[in-house]
Amino acid sequence: MSSTLVRVTLLIIAIAASHSAIGQSQGNVASWLDEPKLPSWNKAGLPIPAAPRVQGDVDPRCRELARPPTLEEDKHLRDQGWDLVGAFQGGWQILVMRGTAGYDGMCRPRQFQDFVFVRGVFVAHSRHKRRTAAPTVL
Fold it and tell me: What is the pTM of this model?
């Protein structure tokens, strides 16, 4: 058994040593985060956006899995057609909650957004595609 372990270890070392990309610098690539003034994704004073229309019917079993509104901010999102997904995150008078407009065939959120409230006032949101966490410019 130890000879098999030695062979596997030597094989991994040989592959790693022969791979040309290992140990090379990635270079200096400018990022949008390097800009002196970052672009704003939101504008103050905008209303909570309405949930977009989804194609086809939403499975009622998926809607039953949505979190019921318990806070005033939850009710504002529901009034705009969003289903509440997951627990809200909050502290220091800041709340972040997720709403979805629809679901896929396995009841996973689709067309969902995170909404930010400060002292009960809507201040920002970020749009997500499927299950990624990368916001798009709004």
Answer: 0.60
Q: Rounded to whole angstroms, how far apart are CA atoms 131 and 7?
A: 40
Alpha-helical runs (H) found in the chain: 2-18, 60-63, 72-79
**Number of other residues whose CB lies within 10 A of the CB of residue 114:** 19
Side by side, the strands of the sheet bearing 109-118 are 83-91, 94-103, 109-118, 121-127
CB 86 within 8 A of CB 67: yes
* Tens digit of pLDDT at every position of the chain (138 positions): 577 777 777 767 767 666 665 556 666 677 766 777 766 666 666 788 888 888 777 788 888 888 889 898 889 999 998 999 888 888 898 888 889 888 888 888 888 888 888 888 888 777 655 444 444 433
